[in-house]
Amino acid sequence: MYSSTDMSAQENLKNLAIKNAKDGDWEAAIKNNLELFELNPENINPLNRIGVAYIQLNKIPKAKKYFKQVLEIDANNRIAQKHLEKLNNNKVIAAPSFIKQHFIEEPGKTKTIQLLRLAGKQILENISIGRICELKIKNRFISIESNGQYLGTLPEDLSFRLSKLIKNGNTYSCQVRSCTTKQCFVYLKETFQSENNEGTHSFPPKDIALSPMSEIDESIILEENIPVEIIQTDEDFERTLDDVNTDDILKLQ
Asked: What dotted CATH number matches 100-221?
């Protein structure tokens, strides 16, 4: 039995972990879910949340570790089974759709870019808002990849500019802002400016022609068919996995 104090501490940790995830602070979400699990080892939901957090951080081996830990406790846990199956088959798991709230434009520091040389339909149809990406410098352009999967490239003029800034010490984060099988937009943000690039804007105004986000079909933003399955309460467990979306993982008790 747990005291009212213990229950209150667990509820506070759960709410804090949810807030961490909504803020995109996956490291803090992992820390608080670990503490939550330590308080109540019988509750394996925090372990599933930790697994998803590691997916967002592109730390797939660690994500697998926690899903396997869930299955060691509950061999029939469908949530862990489904995630682990997707990871073992190198399938992309969509990010929570609430991440879209964090695409705040800062002049000179951030930019929404439409990718060129897009990947195939089978890859793009599994990509959703918030997917963390990596910038890979090539000879003539920067390739955008997620979990080792190629998504597309930045325009050559922007690729040339960012390549020089990166080589001089700048760092950037990249997330998918919207994606269909026909177009994909990413959100780039300068996360560190080197002294070598002091006074140089990563994204000068009017430097690159971009398609405004207002032109993107709103249905892309309000994506519902996200191929990740998490439940909210015990009563909801009878729902089929296809009926559950990524955001629900944050609400596990």
From this structure: 3.30.70
Q: Is 211 helix (H, G, I), strand (E, B) or coil?
A: coil
Cα–Cα dist 247/95, whole Å = 8
CA-nearest of 104, 78, 102 to 25 is 102
Characterize the bridge pairing of strands 184-192 and 171-179: antiparallel
CA distances (Å), origin 6, targets 42, 81, 108, 180, 237:
14, 30, 47, 45, 25
- Rounded to whole angstroms, the Cα distance separating 86 from 88 reads 6
Walk along the chain (253 residues) and give the pLDDT tens digit of each residue. 455 566 788 888 888 988 888 777 788 999 999 999 999 998 999 999 999 888 877 788 999 999 999 999 999 999 999 999 988 887 756 556 555 556 778 889 999 999 999 999 888 887 867 788 999 999 889 999 988 889 999 999 999 999 999 999 999 999 888 888 899 999 999 999 999 999 999 998 764 444 333 333 333 222 333 233 322 333 333 333 333 444 555 555 5
Architecture of domain 4-93+227-251: Alpha Horseshoe (1.25)
> Quick one: tokens of 59?
């730390």
Residues of the chain with CATH 1.25.40.10: 4-93+227-251
Cα 206 to the center of its chain, rounded Å:
29
Q: Taking the C-alpha atoms of 78, 81, 83 and 88 in order, what is their torsion angle to the nearest 10 degrees?
A: -160
Query: Tokens 């920067």 belong to which residue?
Result: 142
Which residue intervals of the chain bear CATH 3.30.70? 100-221
